Amino acid sequence: xxxxxxxxxxxxxxxKQKCLPHLLRDLSRTRHSHNPGGDWPEFYRRxxxxxxxxxxxxxxxxxxxxxxxxxxxxxxxxRLDEFID
Length: 85
What we know:
There is one protein chain. This protein is mainly α. The protein has one domain. Helices cover 68% and strands 0% of the residues. It has 3 helices and no strands.
């Protein structure tokens, strides 16, 4: 997992995970400083919610139990697939 430092872009690997708090920060900065219009407000809102819900699920996983945690994970994956489509 990396932050958004440009030097990491040259690293070749099978998969790269970006730091989600950094992604949320950059999304917020774009929203406030560039004031993009069009589809951006809806894109921002949905992506931010997906990221936060995933982070919350990971944090609360132990207390939720296996069954509840798995159901929520499946729902988040479905929402992510719909978002990508």
